[in-house]
Amino acid sequence: MLVVTVSSDNFEFGLSIRELLRIWGKIIEHKEDEIIIDLSHCRFCNCCLLLGLHLLHKNLSQEGCRISLNTDCIHPAFASYLVLTSFTEGLNPNHFSSEQMDQLLLHYQNRTYLPLLDFPATELLADSQIRDRLLSFLSQSIQNKLHLDPQIFIAVSYLITEAVNNIKDHARTPRGYLFTQFYPRKGLMDICFADLGVSLLGSYQAVERTDVNSPVIAMQSALNGDSTKGELHRGFGIRTSREMLVHGLGGRYFMMSGNAFLDSRPGVKDKINVFPERPGIQWDGTYLALRIPIQTKPGFDYIKCVE
Fold first, then answer.
1. CA-to-CA dists, residue 239 to 5, 163, 224, 300, angstroms
2. How far apart are CA 232 and CA 266, in angstroms?
3. 79-88, 155-164, 208-217, 286-295: least confident range
4. How far is the C-alpha of 246 from the C-alpha of 252, rounded, in Å?
5. Which of 16, 121, 145, 169 satisfies CB 3.0 to 4.6 Å to 49 for a cystine?
């Protein structure tokens, strides 16, 4: 049996990502064993780490691995947090009407987080309506909690909508996932999106882009604005979101898909990396973590970011 203990020291964005990769690597090395992801001694976990752990558990369980989550926490506040955020199962908006979603909003209005959301990602009309309700729920929650400057609010809404639509348009999977945490005193919010779909590379392969033949090339193509939808859509999506967050707002943009990952931040030259030491590490889909400053940045103009 392998027990992988989750560190609590992961408020910092980079530490939470490194902790996810560390745990992931240990699990890959011991996939044939019984595995327990142990959160019992945690006092706090960043939402980006928790969403990654949730999906590692879900994906490996579906593959038949003997893996479980120990959420029997010795710290009552964190134990309560895991329950209230629906960490183990995820909260499915398909099960709620518009009125019930409004009631949920009231339930979380005095908290610094929203639940881990497991949302539909198909083109069906009913699923589109659920996503619209979800996006409205998120926008209203964010503004009620943070009272953002209008320019920042529009930018945050764009980042969220674009990430959700990318899952719907490209992942070819029935479900997407997101998790949100607010740090009002620090002037930050973290939001993480993920899917277990075809990955960036699979999205290009699905439209017979033979020139895009590796996860690294697929990620670079997406960052260059080379959309699978054709020339009409160049310059939007991933490229615009990263430019807006990193260079417009001074935030941080982390993305991984397949065996490729990018950690984009102000003042550091972008470089797409791979997982060379552990070739078994392969994110089946796309994972996107955003750290968003919520204070108005002098000179920020949303319109210039999307022109």
1. 36, 11, 6, 17
2. 29
3. 208-217
4. 6
5. 16
Residue 302 has pLDDT above 50, yes or no: yes
User: What does the pLDDT look like over 41-51, one tens digit per residue?
Assistant: 999 999 999 99
Q: Does residue 105 surpass a pLDDT of 90?
A: no
Buried b / exposed e over 47-78, threshold 16 CB at 10 Å, is: bbbbbbbbbbbbebeeeebebebebebeeeeb
Question: Alpha helices of the chain — where are they, by DSSP H?
Answer: 13-29, 47-62, 76-84, 98-108, 125-146, 150-170, 199-206, 215-223, 238-242, 302-306
Report CA torsion sign: 97, 102, 103, 104: positive
Phi, psi at 240, each rounded to 5°: -65, -40
Strand partners, 120: 175
The DSSP bridge partners found for residue 298 are none
Task: Using the structure block, give the residue that is written with the tokens 């009231």.
Answer: 106
- In eight-state DSSP terms, residue 184 is G
Q: What is the DSSP string of 30-56?
A: TTTS-EEEE-TT-S---HHHHHHHHHH
Rounded to the nearest 10 degrees, the angle between the axes of helix 47-62 and helix 13-29 is 20
Q: How far apart are CA 2 and CA 196, in angstroms?
A: 24
- When pLDDT is cut at 50, 70 and 90, the band that residue 103 belongs to is confident
pLDDT given for residue 10 in this prediction: 67
Residue 96 confidence class, pLDDT cut points 50, 70, 90: confident
- Residue 131's pLDDT is 93
Q: Token pair of 120, please? A: 């539909």
0.85 exceeded by pTM: yes
Question: How many angstroms separate the Cα of 77 from the Cα of each of 41, 45, 72?
Answer: 12, 12, 12
pLDDT over 80 at 228, yes or no: no
